[in-house]
Write a structure and sequence with these properties.
Helix content is 53%, strand content 0%. The protein is mainly α. Helix 2 (22-29) crosses helix 3 (33-40). It starts with 5 loop residues before the first helix and ends with a helix.
Amino acid sequence: MNQITPLAAKFRRLREHLGKSRPAFAEMLGIPPTTLKNYELGYREAIPASLLLTIYNKPELANYANYLLDDAKPLDTLGIMDMQEAA
């Protein structure tokens, strides 16, 4: 059984918040769509730091870097609702 990490779940919520399909978001990140799918579904355990740096260095995504990295960051400031907060 695969376990989806909190970071992987945030990647999916971010992609959905941006209104991007997996292929479109993967293209923005410079990774194959299957790799993004594997991250989102927990088939790959770790999301590499290089991918987080890619997000940080892209002007259209840089504002979301803190959301991905900081569990304490209020998610509602980005218009993204965390599943734990919804409960």
